[in-house]
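Justification of resources, computational component.

The compute hours requested in this renewal are based largely on the per-chain cost of generating structure records like the one below. Each record pairs the submitted sequence with a full structure-token output. That output is archived, and it is also reused by downstream analysis tasks.
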Amino acid sequence: MDVTIFTKQGCPYCAAAKKHYGDIGVAYKEIDVNVEPGAKEKALELSGGKRIVPVIVEDGRVTLGFGGG
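The structure output for this chain reads:
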């Protein structure tokens, strides 16, 4: 399973998503939209222009936000 999570500092939903994937033993790549160059633009592209985090890309499927695991 290939998982990338676009996050930002202090986001409780981002923390919940990271905990979920950690709890189920799935490695993920975290990209902080406020730190990584170009990450904010990529997250906006993936989300259809919605300013929301986390943006989770799991095996090519995009999920916006996180509501629990």
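The chain has a mean pLDDT of 95. Strands lie at 3-7, 29-32, 55-58, 61-64.
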